[in-house]
Write a structure and sequence with these properties.
The complex is a heterodimer. Chain A is of the alpha+beta class. Among the domains of chain A are: about 110 residues, PH-domain like (Roll), CATH 2.30.29.30; about 90 residues, no CATH class; about 90 residues, no CATH class. Chain A contains 22 helices and nine strands. In chain A, the strands form two sheets. In chain A, strands 4-3-2-1-7-6-5 form a seven-stranded antiparallel sheet, with helices on one face. In chain A, a hairpin with a 7-residue loop joins strand 8 and strand 9. The longest helix of chain A is centred in the last third of the chain and has 32 residues. Chain B has four domains: about 190 residues, no CATH class; about 190 residues, no CATH class; about 240 residues, P-loop containing nucleotide triphosphate hydrolases (Rossmann fold), CATH 3.40.50; about 30 residues, no CATH class. Helices cover about 50% and strands about 15% of the residues of chain B. In chain B, the strands form three sheets. Chain B has an eight-stranded parallel sheet, sandwiched between helices. Chain B has a seven-stranded parallel sheet with strand order 15-16-14-17-18-13-19, sandwiched between helices. In chain B, strands 7-10-9-8 form a four-stranded antiparallel sheet, with helices on both faces. Chain B is globular and about 85 Å long. In chain B, about 50% of the residues are buried. Chains A and B meet through helix 10, helix 11, helix 12 and helix 14 of A and helix 3, helix 5, helix 21, helix 25 and helix 26 of B.
């Protein structure tokens, strides 16, 4: 009893069995514990904060039990075996139960569900985790900002979860079977039915007519108990019962259900492929109009079969519509896909379809170097994010040029495409020359320097790139800063960039210099610095033009 | 294809069994179309008969695809016209008539709007309604034939709408020059309809009967008549109506009756100048020999004929009053009717023809009231025409309820070859095909023809798509069987229930069960309910049950599919030989398992069946037991085949009866099922069966990609042309 000595024992109950061993149950200020009678250390302890709920065995069961369910899904069941008899056992159990009831809410840890989710997300997505480490841990940006802006995938995931959460749980087909009649003690021949609130809800959802009846009758004409008693003796539970018993409370309910079914018969059968009545092409001879024929044999059986069908149909219907609301909307069936499409679906095989796509279109490049090198980065003021009106004009021109090029492709493509049209021989030789070693186009691919980074440094470099581009992405996304929020965002981002420069880039450069020469380090970090400078320059340009309350920003 | 080509070359008939989903329809269509293109003189027309309306439409869509392919490859329009034909109910575009749901009503109302006398009356008096679409067709439709193309039912309707022509009559008119005709096989087998629709189809045609495993029953049904007490009562009523109409007419317009009389004297042939719309009532026998003769004098005048009808009806009524079961031959019946009410055979033979002539003369436009009389007139004609291969059975009550008087007269055809004989004789090639035709050698016997080719094909599959198993005992080792002696045994019923519950727990999505009869289904369901098995079942899946009411069953079916689609899974209890087993496919997730509870023998105590068995034994030397087993096994196979509709599909087939494992039953399953039925799986208990299914399902649930099939069940063009494959194909062809 080493650990518990310091705690005060609130309650001690002996004669408690756990897994066939008898022992004592201790309830202490922060946890409960159980030990085998003659030992002095706990075999089982649970902190109150780990406990989700407690459950007790229903009355009338031979065993008096109490179950403690934990947050991690496990459960421990204690059985009370006071030799003084069942009444004592119950008393013991109730003592424990009451105390737990009092204490548990205090310890109910308000689990920050959100936090857990985030933790999970980070552990599942290593790249985000890295980003988080780089940006948040190093105080480049705040955690809230990270979750709000950067972890886009997380946001999406959460929304999905929210949407998915709206899906309702359907109704088990066997909910009526779950109300198993239990013969209690046999002496008074009574039959007990177990009715939980779940089952009740299922009944109401499946049989709207019963719900109406319930609303109508229950407080005024009869008690809740009486109502359910009647229900249990009705045809809903005894499906072989004849419905025409007029004394039965639920007779008209049954008739109502029947009517709904009839209605369905006339309206719901729209699928021509499934309508058995129209399957045969030839008019039958009157044979359908002789119902006397074989139906005499057993009406009770047929009624039962119909009731099974009806039950299944209603269960299906109930799970289709959200409870209560939308009952009308969702019951409007979407138009069935047209017959022809379904017929074609039925006979087409995916793997036999020809899988050749449209004939490829020749790529016709007007300026090959642009395609190979990308747009020249030196003209960064033109890159379209600067918010000048001129870009719009550019776009127009570009769009037109694009259209004309597209037109040329279309004409050139397809069947009449002639490979000789693409290049004339002079250009071909020219291009070939440029593409061979020593040609203009091959120059760029020369290894510019023999820098060999250790894998560790390489990894770090990669991370730096990722983090920087993440911040830059948000920086440029805020352009043009037309609203005050966006202006603030650019400011925040520029701060983050500065911080990044100091907290990340500078140490890394130091490391690089240690590993190799400074010029090489310079070379390696050049692109990073370049991007950084571009952003900062842009920002300063902006703030010159429009003096911003920097103080306000920096105070954030 | 090779076999089919042989058959076409030999101009003989053939019998092909091909599993469903292996491209049966496409093969048939493409080869026959190619043959038609290559030998346009030898082969002019393809008549493709299928069973249900959706199947007809499916065939049309396949054909459309084929035509599209031709167009793409040849780069030009093909000069081939294909169309589907169905009843008026499915083709009518008349704004009010087409709203009717019942086929009979549509036919009747159509007749009321298009009969020649109605139109004649319309010409004089605009107030008499006619069908504008028919008028449009009659005015212009015949001069401008349908342009080549593919016309499904909906296409015909659209075309009809656009042109203002009646699609039904347009289609019927076009049949004569269309290259491909797709319709229900009643149009060819039922002499009543065949005469109207299919008379002018040329001899050089190929006839394909698809899904033909039940073809003998269709033949028999088309020639059989069932007369009940209620029907006879209605007959009396309609005779009264006839009498009053005739007397009215006599007062007002005697001339017309006289004209009819004159016509009848001259012979029916002239009376029959093809007025297609008047063909609402038709002769049930092939009337060529009748038309040669004039109608006998005793029934020429209208009154005499009605009196004659009355006598026939009264005679049948007295016959229905018997207290015990009577079975007699048509000859005996004729003798008896001659002795009792002095009716000769000859006028009886003309009853149907004479009756339709009378209806025409009386200008009765609503035919629905007279359908009982039509039945009786058909009966009279049939009974006096055929003396062989038919029997008459009169049952005063049902066997199950001997106290309830419910007399029924069955005029039953025993020989299925009678109805199909003209088809075999007339057309150069008849192809009978289905997914389940085994055992093949039975069909030539019962249909009385000599096929040149008879083959059963199997499937080449990249994975074991079907898992047939025979479960013979429950976990308690009590044998499972639907044998008559044991079927009421609670242990057997419980074992069946446990099997279903365990399978329902192991198999995802849809499960379809087939019982041997409605009666058996009902008793089993009620005992399952008492045993609590239904409750257990509902814990796993939703439960739907086929009933005898077609509309209710359709609703249950729709919900079954909904339940399978949304992932809940469902169990459908249904009946072999029922509507579900015949017309609905449970492909993919709709039927992951099929359970066959018991062997679906027909009700062997039925007198009609016994008479037929006797006839088969005497005429075709088929043993009773052989035929019964054949019939049961083809229905079992049909039920099992429901879940397998293509190579990507997969399904468990459980045959829950001890007797299935006997060699005589097993060997009668289709080859493609037998191939997968291993010896080790032939005598399983419930538990073993569930274990095997679980393992198999895990295997089948793996993704199935194109690469897996390549080279086995899917060939690229290069592979197909490769030498090795050519050799293999050749070998197969040799072996087959």
């Amino acid at each position: 009893m080493t650990s518990s000595s310091s705690e005060s024992i609130l309650l001690l109950v002996s004669h408690v069995k756990l897994k066939k061993n008898e022992g004592e149950l201790y309830l202490m200020s922060e946890r409960l514990g159980w030990m085998v009678g003659n030992k002095d250390s706990f075999n089982v302890t649970h902190k109150y904060c780990d406990i989700k709920t407690q459950k007790i065995s229903p009355e009338g069961k031979p065993k008096v039990q109490l179950q403690v369910c934990l947050h991690d899904g496990n459960a421990t069941t204690f059985q009370f075996v006071n030799p003084a008899g069942q009444a004592e056992q119950m008393a013991d159990r109730d003592k424990v139960k009451d105390l737990l009831q009092l204490t548990l809410p205090k310890f109910k840890r308000m689990i920050n569900k959100d936090l857990e989710e985030k933790k999970l997300f980070l552990s599942e997505n290593p790249q985000y985790r890295q980003l988080y480490m780089d940006l948040v841990k190093s105080n480049v940006i705040s955690a809230e900002e990270f979750w709000a802006d950067h972890a886009t995938q997380f946001i999406k995931q959460q929304q999905d979860a929210k949407n998915a959460g709206q899906q309702d749980v359907g109704i088990s087909a066997s909910f009526l079977a779950d109300i198993k009649p239990q013969i209690t003690d046999g002496c008074n021949g009574g039959v007990r039915y177990l009715l939980t609130s779940d089952v009740m809800a299922s009944i109401f959802r499946t049989y709207p007519s019963v719900k109406q009846k319930h609303l109508k009758c229950v407080p005024n004409k009869m008690t809740e108990e009486e109502f359910w008693k009647k229900f249990f003796s009705s045809h809903y539970l005894h499906r072989d019962k004849n419905i025409n018993d007029t004394k039965d409370l639920f007779t008209d309910c049954g008739k109502q259900d029947e009517q709904i079914l009839r209605q369905d018969l006339s309206t719901a059968i729209k699928d021509p492929l499934l309508d058995l009545t129209t399957l045969n092409d030839v008019v039958e001879e009157e044979s359908s109009s002789t119902p006397s024929n074989s139906k005499i044999n057993n009406i009770a059986h047929q009624n039962m079969i119909r009731r099974f069908n009806q039950h299944s149909i209603l269960v299906l219907k109930a799970s289709e519509q959200a409870p209560g609301e939308q009952a009308l909307e969702s019951s409007v069936p979407e138009p069935a896909p047209s017959k022809r499409i379904r017929l074609q679906e039925a006979m087409s095989y995916e793997d036999l379809e020809s899988n050749d796509t449209d004939p490829t279109v020749q790529l016709n490049l007007s300026r090959i170097e642009r395609y190979l090198n990308g747009p020249p980065t030196t003209v960064q003021s033109q890159t379209g994010v600067n918010g000048n009106g001129s870009t719009a004009a550019h776009f127009d021109i570009d769009a037109n040029a694009f259209k004309s090029i597209l037109g040329r492709w279309m004409r050139g493509g397809g069947e009449r495409y002639n490979p000789l049209d693409v290049l004339n021989s002079a250009t071909a030789v020219n291009v070939l020359g440029e593409l061979s070693i020593g040609g203009t186009l091959m120059r760029g691919s020369q290894p510019n320097s023999a820098i060999h980074l250790t894998s560790e440094l390489q990894k770090e470099l990669k991370e730096l790139y990722v983090s920087l581009s993440e911040i830059l992405k948000h920086f440029w996304a805020a352009f043009p800063p037309s609203s005050p929020e966006l202006v603030q965002k650019t400011n925040r981002m520029i701060d983050a960039l500065h911080k990044f420069n100091q907290a990340k880039l500078a140490p890394y450069e130091q490391k690089l210099i240690q590993a190799s020469t400074s010029s090489e380090a310079e070379n390696i970090l050049k692109p990073l610095r370049f991007q950084l400078q571009a952003a900062i320059r842009k920002h300063s340009q902006l703030s010159e033009r429009r003096p911003l309350p920097r103080a306000a920003v920096s105070s954030m | 294809m090779l076999e089919l080509k042989h058959a076409l070359d030999a101009k003989g008939h053939c019998l092909l069994e091909m599993p469903s989903g292996t491209g049966k329809t496409t093969t048939l269509l493409s080869l026959i179309v190619a043959y038609m293109k290559a030998h346009p003189l030898d082969l002019t027309k393809l008549v493709y008969c299928s069973r249900t309306v959706p199947e007809i439409e499916k065939v049309m869509e396949e054909f459309r695809k084929l035509m599209n392919y031709y167009e793409k490859e040849m780069g030009m329009e093909q000069n081939i016209l294909g169309l589907a034909l169905s009843s008026r109910k499915n083709l009518c575009i008349h704004p009010s008539v087409s709203k009717e749901r019942e086929g009979k009503v549509v036919d009747g109302r159509c007749y009321g709007l298009t009969a020649s006398f109605v139109r004649a009356r319309h010409a004089g008096d605009d107030a008499v309604p006619v069908c504008n679409f028919y008028e449009g067709f009659d005015a212009h439709g015949k001069e401008f034939p349908l342009p080549p193309g593919v016309y499904n039912l909906d296409d015909l309707k659209e075309y009809g709408q656009a042109k203002g022509w009646c699609p039904y009559f347009l289609a019927r008119y076009t049949i004569t020059h269309a290259n491909i005709v797709v319709y229900s096989y009643h149009y060819l087998l039922d002499p009543k309809i065949a005469e109207v629709v299919s008379k002018e189809i040329s001899k050089t045609s190929v006839v394909v009967f698809d899904e033909a495993h039940n073809i003998d029953n269709v033949c028999i049904d088309s020639m059989s008549v069932k007369i009940t007490k209620r029907l006879m009562d209605k007959c009396s009523n309609s005779i009264q109506i006839l009498e009053t109409t005739i007397s009215n007419m006599k007062e007002n317009d005697n001339r017309r009756l006289e004209k009819e009389y004159q016509r009848l004297v001259e012979g029916l042939r002239d009376a029959n100048i093809a007025r297609e719309t008047d063909m609402a009532l038709v002769n049930p026998v092939l009337p060529s020999e009748i038309l040669e003769e004039a109608v006998p004098g005793t029934i020429r005048t209208a009154e005499h004929f009605v009196a004659f009808l009355k006598r026939v009806v009264e005679y049948i009524k007295t016959r229905l009053r018997v207290q015990h079961v009577v079975q007699e031959s048509p000859a005996g019946f004729l003798r008896d009717i001659h002795i009792k009410v002095c009716i000769d055979r000859k006028p009886l033979r003309f009853t149907a023809e004479r009756f339709s002539s009378l209806i025409r003369t009386l200008e009765i436009s609503d035919l629905t009231d007279f359908s009982p009389l039509v039945t009786v007139s058909h009966f009279a004609t049939l009974v006096s025409t055929y003396t062989k291969g038919f029997t008459i059975i009169i049952e005063p009550f049902e066997d199950r309820a001997p106290t309830v008087s419910n007399p029924i007269l069955y005029f039953s055809c025993l020989d299925s070859s009678i109805a199909i004989k003209p088809v075999f004789n007339r057309f150069q090639t008849v192809v009978i095909t289905s997914g389940t035709l085994s055992p093949l050698d039975m069909y030539p016997k019962i249909l009385d023809f000599h096929p040149v080719i008879m083959t059963s094909f199997t499937m080449t599959l990249a994975r074991p798509c079907i898992l047939p198993m025979i479960v013979s005992k429950g976990n308690d080792q009590v044998a499972m069987s639907s044998r008559y002696e044991t079927r009421e045994d609670t242990a057997v019923i419980r074992n069946y229930g446990n099997l279903l519950v365990e399978v329902a727990a192991a198999v995802p999505d849809g499960i379809v069960c087939f019982f041997t009869s409605y009666l058996y289904l009902e008793t089993i369901v009620s005992s399952w309910y008492d045993q609590g098995i239904i409750d257990q079942l509902q814990r796993h899946k939703l439960l739907f049950i086929e009933t005898q009411d077609a509309a209710e069953t359709s609703l249950a079916l729709i919900n079954y599919i909904k339940a399978c689609d949304n992932g809940r899974g469902a169990v459908l209890l249904s009946v072999a030989r029922g509507k579900v087993s015949e017309g609905i496919d449970f492909d993919h997730h709709l039927g992951r398992a099929v359970l066959m509870f018991g062997i679906p023998y027909v009700y062997t105590q039925s007198r009609i069946l016994r008479a037929r068995l006797e006839y088969l034994r005497d005429q075709f030397q088929i043993r009773e037991n052989d035929f019964l087993t054949f019939d049961a096994m083809r229905h079992a196979a049909q039920c099992l085949g429901r879940c397998m509709r293509g190579k990507t599909d997969y399904g468990i087939m459980i045959l829950a009866d001890k007797r299935f494992s006997r060699a005589d039953k097993r060997s009668k399953l289709p080859k493609w099922i037998q191939e997968h039925l291993k010896d080790t799986n032939c005598n399983l208990s419930t538990e073993e069966c569930v274990q095997i299914s679980k393992r198999w399902l895990r295997q089948m649930a793996q993704p199935f990609s194109r690469e897996d099939q390549l080279g086995i069940s899917l060939l690229t063009l290069e592979q197909l042309q490769s030498e090795e494959m050519q050799k293999k194909i050749h070998q197969r062809a040799q072996a087959a």
